[in-house]
């Protein structure tokens, strides 16, 4: 059976999503609806800060994965979908009609975590690397780091671990693997056990690789009722990103208020690591230089097969207007 493309998967249940979107009250419809592809606390942090500070009035809709986020956007369930950079390019390459207008997390926050006996990249040769399978960001970004640092990738055994990044960390802690690539929250959670450590941060090694983009349908981006809300979202994202950098303790407090089961010490360590890697979109998160570099890396590694014209995918009007108000940083 032929494997479905990313866009085909996103469109698979569009009719169902339209039915869901048509319900609800008129009052709820007035709020900007943001579709999140994950329950990740760190990805939601700028949103939580913006809401807490009164900079944004929006409703969050959580789905599972980028394909479902794109599906919700195309079906009209959400006004804006937060989608991983690679999958945004992939869907655009397959003909999806949307624009990226900015992001509050412009830089990849993946971390290469290793067992305590590994001290250099070369030490990974002859070991097992846990990811999510070929083509998945953990494995492909791991290979990217290895090649950059002279590691013979053919000497690394790659295994796929299901169940998300937390299970990759568990694989290392259980001795099933010696290295893996996970998000910052999962990495710091593992580091705090004393059984694994962070060897390299993708944000420091490849600060030009984008992480997520805020996507809006082409046929709605100039809707008079929606356009002011998109401007508010973009400005709020910039202000929240700067606030997290300038007031990390307050940002942590906002995070644990929303996620009371999250240990405050862990949250503090995670925010410090994210700030150290400067992942936040303090100037809108999608500079033309970064977009070009991200696309080049995805193409050169073979992760992205389709040709994508950034000029057709990215719309900088909202960022430009926001920076006129608050200035660049």
UniProtKB/TrEMBL annotation:
Record localization: Periplasm
Protein name: SsuA/THI5-like domain-containing protein
A Pfam family of this chain: NMT1
Family membership: Belongs to the bacterial solute-binding protein SsuA/TauA family.
SUPFAM superfamilies (alphabetical): Periplasmic binding protein-like II (SSF53850)
Any one biological process term the GO annotation gives: alkanesulfonate transmembrane transport
GO CC terms, sorted: periplasmic space
SsuA/THI5-like domain residues: 45-251
Keyword Signal: yes
Organism whose genome encodes this protein: Bordetella genomosp. 8
InterPro entries in UniProt: SsuA/THI5
Keyword annotations: Signal
Leader sequence segment: 1-27
Gene3D superfamilies associated with the record: Periplasmic binding protein-like II (3.40.190.10)
């Amino acid at each position: 059976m032929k494997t479905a493309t990313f866009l085909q998967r996103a469109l698979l249940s569009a009719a169902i999503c339209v039915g869901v979107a048509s319900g609800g009250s008129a009052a709820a419809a007035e709020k900007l609806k943001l579709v999140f592809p994950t329950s990740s606390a760190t990805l939601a942090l700028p949103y939580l800060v913006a809401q807490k500070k009164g900079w944004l009035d929006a409703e969050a809709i959580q789905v599972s994965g980028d394909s479902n986020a794109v599906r919700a956007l195309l079906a009209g369930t959400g006004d804006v979908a937060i989608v991983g950079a690679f999958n945004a390019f992939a869907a655009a390459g397959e003909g999806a009609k949307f624009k990226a207008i900015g992001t509050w997390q412009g830089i990849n926050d993946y971390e290469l975590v290793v067992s305590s006996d590994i001290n250099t990249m070369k030490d990974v040769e002859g070991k097992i690397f846990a990811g999510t399978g070929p083509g998945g960001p953990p494995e492909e970004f791991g290979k990217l780091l290895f090649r950059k640092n002279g590691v013979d990738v053919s000497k690394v055994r790659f295994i796929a671990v299901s169940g998300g990044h937390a299970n990759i960390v568990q694989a290392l802690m259980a001795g099933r693997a010696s290295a893996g690539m996970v998000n910052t929250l999962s990495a710091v959670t593992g580091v705090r056990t004393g059984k694994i450590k962070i060897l390299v941060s993708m944000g420091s090694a490849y600060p030009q690789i984008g992480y997520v983009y805020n996507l809006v349908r082409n046929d709605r981006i100039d809707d008079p009722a929606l356009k002011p809300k998109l401007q508010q979202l973009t400005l709020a994202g910039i202000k929240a990103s700067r606030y997290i950098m300038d007031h990390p303790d307050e940002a942590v407090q906002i995070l644990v208020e929303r996620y009371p089961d999250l240990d405050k010490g862990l949250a503090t360590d995670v925010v410090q690591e994210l700030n150290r890697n400067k992942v936040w979109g303090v100037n809108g998160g999608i500079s033309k230089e970064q977009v070009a570099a991200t696309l080049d890396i995805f193409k050169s590694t073979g992760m992205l097969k389709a040709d994508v014209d950034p000029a057709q995918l990215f719309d900088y009007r909202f960022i430009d207007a926001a920076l006129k108000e608050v200035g660049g940083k």
